């Protein structure tokens, strides 16, 4: 039905689309009610995060510091400070950003985190 070249191209396209569409990545934000830096992040980034390419590729989930982790989530070490952003891939931590020092710093650190985890952002 298809030639070998067409079959290989089809396999490559399906594999690429599956890798990009995979919801296996999550960004967990650990926060606390009295965290002023969490409020700054909400004001500067939180209001737009879901609308960005990063937010669409790596959806954000919020957890209160000290709360029980969702089932199947494994961290490399306990979270001690807020805000802390932990990138989870297939249930395991693949990197984190501790603290918030401004919008441009957050996006720069996020870019590094995504590159280290080989996450493609369109």
* Beta-strand percent range: 15-25%
Which structural class should the secondary elements be placed in?
Answer: alpha+beta
CATH superfamily: Glutaredoxin
> What is the fold named in CATH at topology level?
Glutaredoxin
Number of structural domains = 1
Largest sheet: 4 strands, mixed
Distance between the termini: 33 Å
The CATH architecture designation is: 3-Layer(aba) Sandwich
Rg computed from alpha carbons, rounded to a whole number of angstroms = 17 Å
Under CATH at level 1, the class stands as Alpha Beta
What is the N-to-C succession of helices and strands?
HEHHEEEH
| Low-confidence blocks of residues | 8-22
Give the total of beta strands.
4
* Count of discrete alpha- or pi-helical segments spanning 4 or more residues: 4
**Which strand order spans the largest sheet, edge to edge or round the barrel?**
2-1-3-4
Global morphology: globular
Report mean pLDDT, rounded to a whole number: 87
Fraction of residues in H or I helices: 25-40%
Question: Helix and strand layout, with pairings?
Answer:
Elements: H1 4-21, E1 25-31, H2 36-46, H3 53-57, E2 60-64, E3 84-89, E4 92-98, H4 103-116
Parallel strand pairs: 1-2
Antiparallel strand pairs: 1-3, 3-4
Key phrases:
Glutaredoxin; 4 strands; 122 residues; alpha+beta; 4 helices; 4-stranded mixed beta sheet
